[in-house]
Amino acid sequence: NKYGIQVIAIKELIPEKTTFVPKSDFVIKDSDILIIMGEEKQLEKLNKL
Q: Which residue has the higher pLDDT, 1 or 39?
C-alpha cells in the first residue's frame, strides 16, 4: 500500500464500537481512533500528514 502500514482496528466513539480489520470501503470519521501497525519509519511519515 501507499504508506506501508496496516489498519488493524478502528475504535468508533459514535456509536461506541470497535471494528477489527475494517474493509477498504469503511468510512473514517473525525472522532474515530485508528489502531495501526507498521515500521517506525512509515508510522513517522504518516504522522507528518
A: 39
- Please give the grid coordinates belonging to residue 29: 470519521
Rounded Cα distance, 15 and 1, in Å: 29
- For 4-24, the pLDDT digits (tens) are 899 999 999 988 999 999 999
Task: Centre a 10 Å sphere on the Cβ of residue 10 and count the other Cβ atoms it contains.
Answer: 20
The secondary structure element, H or E, covering residue 42 is: helix 40-47
The grid coordinates of residue 45 equal 511519515
At 36, the amino acid letter reads I
How many other CB atoms sit within 10 Å of the CB of residue 46?
Answer: 15
Residue from 3, 35, 41 nearest 26 by CA: 35
